[in-house]
From TrEMBL:
InterPro entries: CheY-like_superfamily (IPR011006), NreC/VraR/RcsB-like_REC (IPR058245), Sig_transdc_resp-reg_C-effctor (IPR016032), Sig_transdc_resp-reg_receiver (IPR001789), Tscrpt_reg_LuxR_C (IPR000792), WalR-like (IPR039420). This is Response regulator transcription factor. GO terms for biological process: phosphorelay signal transduction system; regulation of DNA-templated transcription. It comes from the Bacteria. PANTHER family: TRANSCRIPTIONAL REGULATORY PROTEIN DEGU, TWO-COMPONENT RESPONSE REGULATOR. Keywords: DNA-binding, Phosphoprotein, Transcription, Transcription regulation.
Protein backbone atom coordinates (compact mmCIF):
# COMPACT_ATOMS: atom_id res chain seq x y z
CA UNK A 1 0.00 0.00 0.00
CA UNK A 2 1.33 3.42 -0.94
CA UNK A 3 2.36 5.78 1.86
CA UNK A 4 1.60 9.36 0.92
CA UNK A 5 3.60 12.38 2.00
CA UNK A 6 1.23 14.86 3.64
CA UNK A 7 3.76 17.67 4.05
CA UNK A 8 3.27 20.90 2.10
CA UNK A 9 6.73 20.82 0.53
CA UNK A 10 8.49 18.04 -1.41
CA UNK A 11 10.79 15.74 0.53
CA UNK A 12 14.33 16.88 -0.24
CA UNK A 13 16.90 14.14 -0.81
CA UNK A 14 20.64 13.86 -1.24
CA UNK A 15 22.10 10.78 -2.96
CA UNK A 16 25.52 9.56 -1.75
CA UNK A 17 26.88 6.77 -3.96
CA UNK A 18 30.10 6.41 -5.92
CA UNK A 19 28.36 4.86 -8.96
CA UNK A 20 27.13 7.68 -11.18
CA UNK A 21 24.85 5.50 -13.31
CA UNK A 22 23.13 4.17 -10.21
CA UNK A 23 22.63 7.70 -8.86
CA UNK A 24 21.16 8.84 -12.16
CA UNK A 25 18.72 5.94 -12.20
CA UNK A 26 17.54 6.55 -8.63
CA UNK A 27 17.33 10.28 -9.24
CA UNK A 28 15.16 9.75 -12.31
CA UNK A 29 12.79 7.47 -10.38
CA UNK A 30 12.46 9.77 -7.38
CA UNK A 31 12.00 12.99 -9.33
CA UNK A 32 9.00 11.46 -11.09
CA UNK A 33 7.14 11.70 -7.77
CA UNK A 34 5.54 15.06 -7.04
CA UNK A 35 6.41 14.89 -3.33
CA UNK A 36 10.08 13.91 -3.78
CA UNK A 37 12.98 16.03 -5.01
CA UNK A 38 16.65 15.09 -5.34
CA UNK A 39 18.49 18.31 -4.50
CA UNK A 40 22.05 17.01 -4.52
CA UNK A 41 24.30 14.05 -5.16
CA UNK A 42 27.86 13.05 -4.34
CA UNK A 43 30.27 10.12 -4.42
CA UNK A 44 31.93 9.98 -0.98
CA UNK A 45 31.27 10.47 2.71
CA UNK A 46 33.08 13.78 2.99
CA UNK A 47 31.06 15.36 0.21
CA UNK A 48 27.76 14.28 1.73
CA UNK A 49 28.49 16.29 4.89
CA UNK A 50 29.30 19.34 2.80
CA UNK A 51 26.08 18.96 0.77
CA UNK A 52 23.98 18.58 3.90
CA UNK A 53 25.48 21.78 5.28
CA UNK A 54 24.53 23.60 2.08
CA UNK A 55 21.18 22.03 1.20
CA UNK A 56 19.67 20.82 4.50
CA UNK A 57 17.85 17.82 2.99
CA UNK A 58 15.21 15.75 4.77
CA UNK A 59 16.74 12.43 3.73
CA UNK A 60 20.15 11.16 2.70
CA UNK A 61 20.24 7.92 0.71
CA UNK A 62 23.66 6.58 1.66
CA UNK A 63 25.72 3.78 0.16
CA UNK A 64 28.08 1.91 2.49
CA UNK A 65 31.06 1.30 0.21
CA UNK A 66 32.25 4.76 -0.78
CA UNK A 67 35.81 6.09 -1.18
CA UNK A 68 37.55 8.46 1.25
CA UNK A 69 34.93 7.90 3.96
CA UNK A 70 32.46 5.02 3.96
CA UNK A 71 28.74 5.25 4.64
CA UNK A 72 28.95 3.95 8.21
CA UNK A 73 31.40 6.65 9.29
CA UNK A 74 29.56 9.30 7.29
CA UNK A 75 26.25 8.35 8.90
CA UNK A 76 27.67 8.71 12.41
CA UNK A 77 29.19 12.12 11.63
CA UNK A 78 26.08 13.32 9.82
CA UNK A 79 23.75 12.39 12.69
CA UNK A 80 26.08 14.09 15.17
CA UNK A 81 26.14 17.35 13.19
CA UNK A 82 22.64 17.25 11.66
CA UNK A 83 20.45 15.10 13.94
CA UNK A 84 17.30 16.25 12.15
CA UNK A 85 18.41 14.74 8.80
CA UNK A 86 17.30 11.14 8.40
CA UNK A 87 19.60 8.55 6.82
CA UNK A 88 18.54 5.56 4.74
CA UNK A 89 21.24 3.09 3.79
CA UNK A 90 20.92 1.81 0.23
CA UNK A 91 23.34 -1.08 -0.18
CA UNK A 92 24.13 -4.34 -1.96
CA UNK A 93 25.04 -5.98 1.37
CA UNK A 94 22.44 -8.06 3.20
CA UNK A 95 24.83 -9.06 5.99
CA UNK A 96 23.25 -8.35 9.38
CA UNK A 97 26.45 -6.81 10.75
CA UNK A 98 26.17 -3.98 8.24
CA UNK A 99 22.51 -3.47 9.10
CA UNK A 100 23.03 -3.39 12.83
CA UNK A 101 26.08 -1.14 12.69
CA UNK A 102 24.37 1.48 10.53
CA UNK A 103 21.27 1.44 12.75
CA UNK A 104 23.50 1.95 15.78
CA UNK A 105 25.08 4.94 14.06
CA UNK A 106 21.67 6.53 13.58
CA UNK A 107 20.27 5.31 10.25
CA UNK A 108 16.48 5.00 10.14
CA UNK A 109 16.36 2.63 7.19
CA UNK A 110 18.32 -0.10 5.47
CA UNK A 111 17.38 -1.02 1.90
CA UNK A 112 18.87 -3.29 -0.72
CA UNK A 113 19.62 -1.91 -4.16
CA UNK A 114 17.63 -4.62 -5.89
CA UNK A 115 14.34 -3.50 -4.35
CA UNK A 116 11.47 -2.29 -6.52
CA UNK A 117 11.04 1.42 -7.20
CA UNK A 118 7.65 1.54 -5.48
CA UNK A 119 9.10 0.00 -2.31
CA UNK A 120 11.95 2.53 -2.28
CA UNK A 121 9.51 5.42 -2.59
CA UNK A 122 7.29 4.09 0.19
CA UNK A 123 10.34 3.52 2.40
CA UNK A 124 11.39 7.16 1.99
CA UNK A 125 7.92 8.42 2.87
CA UNK A 126 7.75 6.08 5.85
CA UNK A 127 11.09 7.26 7.27
CA UNK A 128 10.12 10.92 6.82
CA UNK A 129 7.00 10.12 8.85
CA UNK A 130 9.26 8.92 11.66
CA UNK A 131 9.20 5.15 11.14
CA UNK A 132 12.09 2.76 10.75
CA UNK A 133 12.18 0.77 7.53
CA UNK A 134 14.24 -2.36 7.01
CA UNK A 135 14.28 -4.37 3.79
CA UNK A 136 12.30 -7.61 4.33
CA UNK A 137 15.20 -9.72 3.06
CA UNK A 138 17.46 -8.61 5.92
CA UNK A 139 14.93 -8.33 8.76
CA UNK A 140 15.34 -11.97 9.79
CA UNK A 141 19.13 -11.72 9.73
CA UNK A 142 18.98 -8.57 11.84
CA UNK A 143 16.85 -10.28 14.46
CA UNK A 144 19.26 -13.21 14.62
CA UNK A 145 22.15 -10.81 15.13
CA UNK A 146 20.30 -9.05 17.93
CA UNK A 147 19.58 -12.38 19.58
CA UNK A 148 23.31 -13.03 19.80
CA UNK A 149 24.03 -9.75 21.50
CA UNK A 150 24.42 -9.67 25.25
CA UNK A 151 22.09 -7.22 26.93
CA UNK A 152 22.17 -8.95 30.29
CA UNK A 153 25.05 -9.67 32.63
CA UNK A 154 25.41 -12.94 34.51
CA UNK A 155 23.05 -11.73 37.25
CA UNK A 156 20.36 -10.83 34.74
CA UNK A 157 20.65 -7.07 35.14
CA UNK A 158 21.13 -4.54 32.34
CA UNK A 159 21.70 -0.89 33.12
CA UNK A 160 18.97 0.54 35.34
CA UNK A 161 16.40 -1.99 34.16
CA UNK A 162 14.79 -4.70 36.25
CA UNK A 163 14.67 -8.11 34.61
CA UNK A 164 11.84 -10.60 34.85
CA UNK A 165 12.06 -14.19 33.63
CA UNK A 166 8.84 -16.05 32.96
CA UNK A 167 8.04 -18.97 30.66
CA UNK A 168 11.57 -18.79 29.27
CA UNK A 169 11.18 -15.15 28.15
CA UNK A 170 13.50 -12.34 29.21
CA UNK A 171 12.35 -8.75 29.67
CA UNK A 172 14.21 -5.58 30.46
CA UNK A 173 11.89 -3.04 32.03
CA UNK A 174 13.44 0.30 31.11
CA UNK A 175 12.09 3.59 32.42
CA UNK A 176 11.52 4.93 28.93
CA UNK A 177 9.49 1.97 27.68
CA UNK A 178 5.80 2.60 26.96
CA UNK A 179 5.05 -1.13 27.07
CA UNK A 180 3.62 -3.20 29.89
CA UNK A 181 5.36 -6.44 30.84
CA UNK A 182 2.78 -8.50 28.98
CA UNK A 183 3.15 -6.32 25.86
CA UNK A 184 6.91 -6.81 26.05
CA UNK A 185 6.28 -10.56 26.15
CA UNK A 186 4.10 -10.38 23.06
CA UNK A 187 6.60 -8.19 21.22
CA UNK A 188 9.46 -10.56 21.97
CA UNK A 189 7.47 -13.47 20.55
CA UNK A 190 6.53 -11.39 17.52
CA UNK A 191 10.27 -10.94 16.94
CA UNK A 192 10.62 -14.72 16.78
CA UNK A 193 8.11 -14.79 13.94
CA UNK A 194 5.29 -16.37 15.92
CA UNK A 195 1.72 -15.84 14.73
CA UNK A 196 -1.01 -14.51 17.02
CA UNK A 197 -2.29 -18.06 17.48
CA UNK A 198 1.18 -19.36 18.42
CA UNK A 199 1.73 -16.45 20.84
CA UNK A 200 -1.59 -17.19 22.50
CA UNK A 201 -0.70 -20.85 22.92
CA UNK A 202 2.72 -19.97 24.33
CA UNK A 203 1.33 -17.47 26.85
CA UNK A 204 -1.90 -19.37 27.57
CA UNK A 205 -4.10 -16.49 26.47
CA UNK A 206 -6.72 -16.24 23.71
CA UNK A 207 -5.87 -15.21 20.17
CA UNK A 208 -8.24 -12.26 20.57
CA UNK A 209 -6.28 -11.09 23.60
CA UNK A 210 -3.06 -11.33 21.61
CA UNK A 211 -4.59 -9.20 18.84
CA UNK A 212 -5.53 -6.58 21.42
CA UNK A 213 -1.97 -6.55 22.79
CA UNK A 214 -0.53 -6.22 19.28
CA UNK A 215 -2.85 -3.30 18.49
CA UNK A 216 -1.85 -1.61 21.75
CA UNK A 217 1.86 -2.13 21.01
CA UNK A 218 1.60 -0.59 17.54
CA UNK A 219 -0.43 2.34 18.86
CA UNK A 220 1.93 3.08 21.76
CA UNK A 221 4.99 2.87 19.54
CA UNK A 222 3.31 4.87 16.76
CA UNK A 223 4.22 2.35 14.06
CA UNK A 224 2.25 0.67 11.30
CA UNK A 225 3.48 -2.92 11.44
CA UNK A 226 5.19 -5.59 13.51
CA UNK A 227 8.63 -5.25 11.94
CA UNK A 228 8.92 -1.57 12.78
CA UNK A 229 7.81 -2.25 16.37
CA UNK A 230 10.36 -5.02 16.87
CA UNK A 231 13.26 -3.00 15.47
CA UNK A 232 12.50 0.10 17.55
CA UNK A 233 11.97 -1.89 20.75
CA UNK A 234 15.25 -3.77 20.39
CA UNK A 235 17.17 -0.60 19.50
CA UNK A 236 15.84 1.07 22.65
CA UNK A 237 16.52 -1.97 24.84
CA UNK A 238 12.90 -2.48 25.85
CA UNK A 239 13.02 -6.21 25.17
CA UNK A 240 15.83 -8.71 24.73
CA UNK A 241 15.95 -11.78 22.57
Amino acid sequence: MDIMNNTKHPIKLVLADDHQLFREGVKRILNMESDLEVVGECSDGIQVLELCNQLHPDIVLMDINMPIENGVVATEKLKDIFPEIKVIILSIHDDESYVFETLRKGAMGYLLKDMEAESLINAIRSVVAGHAYIHPKVTGKLINQLRRMTYLDEQGVAGNGAVTKEAGVKYVHMDNSPLTRREAEVLRLMAEGKSNKMIGEFLYISEKTVKNHVSSILQKMEVDDRTQAVIIAIKNGWVTL
